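Protein modeling request. Please complete all fields; requests missing the sequence field cannot be processed.
Requester role: graduate student
Desired output: 3D structure, token encoding
Chains: 1
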Amino acid sequence: MTLEEFEKRRKKLPDAPGVYFFLGKDKKILYIGKATSLKSRVRSYFSGDLMASRGPLLVDMVEKATSIDWRETDSVLEALILEANLIKTHKPRYNTDLKDDKSFNYVVITREDFPRVLLVRGKELETLHRNSSISFTPLHTFGPFPHGSQLKEALRIVRKIFPYRDTCTPCMERKENVAEVSPPRPSGGLSSAKCRPCFNRHIGLCPGVCSGEISKTEYRKIVRRIALLFAGKKPQLLKGLERDMNTAAKHEQFEEAARLRGQVFALNHIQDVSLIKRELRHPSTIRSTRIEAYDAAHLQGSAAVGVMVVVDGGEVQKSEYRKFILRATKQGDDAGALREILSRRLAHAPPDGDWSLPRLIVVDGSTAQLNAAKKVLDEYGMQILLVGVVKDEKHRPREILGDTHVVAGNEQAILLANAEAHRYAIAFHRKKSRKNLLS
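Delivered output (439 residues):
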């Protein structure tokens, strides 16, 4: 598919969450992806540096594609679930070639009296088929989900709507029978429980399996609802909830009816994930959120390297630092170095990658570096806040360019991220220079 052909089709793409399909000859699905904004995400496949940022496999896929299709969803959560179900059904070649099955993620509901809902790696499922000593037997398995970090967030959202058990032990299976702390007030379950409630019960994420407040029958209703949601059967799930809500109201079980009404409302207004796009465009503050800073280092053009560092909640996250050996940037082109680093970093962004997106990007430099970064973000269809740290002759911060409200509320975190990026880039450059000398 050429850029011109895509541009004609692109005008119809909505700026909304959903799943997109690249189709080949005879409408065969080549690749399936998920997007916060279908319009922006699909556009990124036609940027000029697709080979450098995404690799030859996706370049080959785009060249073989003859058309694009999509399915819009009400939320990113539903897009995540729909993507997994469609990948499982169609097994597109370019999805399976890009990632080994063992590295995919799955949601497993266990076969127990009080089933657990677990996030399981593909390699664990493979082990399960060979080793009967694994601690769970699947009742339902949903996936594959390509994006582990997003799946964890999705499970957090689902658990707020439908509390479930994950690691706590059912009351009837525990040796101690008298709680040292009074259990929470029962909510329609077994009122005679005297087992100690787990922490998740106290914060409303467990329905009281550990404290004996819910029967097997009632708990299985919750499990069935979670299974329907992950099977992509939201209309059927809503219909069942509304039926149960009306039945509860008819029998004057008004607390139960109100709880079910709240679940119906939550499913119809899934805001937690859908707000990702809005937050990126109009964040009131970025305090206690992910900030990424970038820097490059070289010696007269040799041993050129770049780095990414992460500050979250005002604290450095060293396990998420990344290094880049720069090969495409010309000597002395600082803006070009930033473009290469940022393009390669965004190749790992959801939905095709598993690196979380930041709320703010910090670059070392002034207008030239900010414009270079903004151009890359525009090519990827991403709207992320940008600031630049301008240095004086002694390489000390002199000024921060960018949104004044953002800078005023986050100056300390911005300067920390910038200083860490500089330190990390110099350390990586020295290490690479020594290695070059020795070789």
